[in-house]
Amino acid sequence: MKKPAFSPRGLKGFTLIEMMVVVLVLAVLAAFAVPSFRTMIANQRVTSAAQELQVVLLYARSEAVYKRVETTVTSSGQKWEVTAAEQVLREATLSDVVNVEPGSAGGVIFDVSGQAKPAAGGTSYTVSVSATDASRVQCLNVSPAGLVRLKGVPVGQACP
To answer: Which CATH number covers residue 148?
Structure first.
């Protein structure tokens, strides 16, 4: 009786050349993916920091309305504080990886009705959050009505 030309017993695994080709293809794909992952991670850090800052501003507004006392949000570098009646209600420290640029010095003040005004004067308060390698900037805008809006713009564009 003749043996078949193709036998399952004859297959024992991959050759060394086949394994090297697979490793080489994976290395090339990883080399193309790394720069986009770096940008994606930087964008996520910017978004996370901006959302944390948005929560702090919304908290300050809600405390002003709830406690019927004027609250102020101020920044000192990466540290943000919510104060009311000279008492610190909440603190948030943003990552050193992101750059936060407040629109005006002195922060923003929420009155008992929830309306906002920049401490340094003006009509609205804007904060921009960016990072190295990020492809967008997150802009936080506090309107005179006290609404806190978050909007992403491409790097190089000014916050509205």
So the answer is: 3.55.40.10
Q: Is residue 67 part of a domain?
A: yes
Question: Do 119 and 72 form a contact (C-beta atoms < 8 A)?
Answer: yes
pLDDT tens figures, 112-137: 999 999 988 777 889 999 999 899 99
Q: How many domains is the chain partitioned into structurally?
A: 1
Q: Say what the pTM is.
A: 0.79
CA-closest candidate to residue 134, choices 32, 54, 52, 48: 48
Q: Domain span at residue 109?
A: 15-154
Cβ 100 vs Cβ 94: under 8 Å: yes
Alpha-carbon gap, residue 120 to 103, rounded angstroms? 10
Question: Shortest CA distance to 109 belongs to which of 122, 100, 97, 118?
Answer: 118
Q: Which pair of tokens denotes residue 65?
A: 């309305």
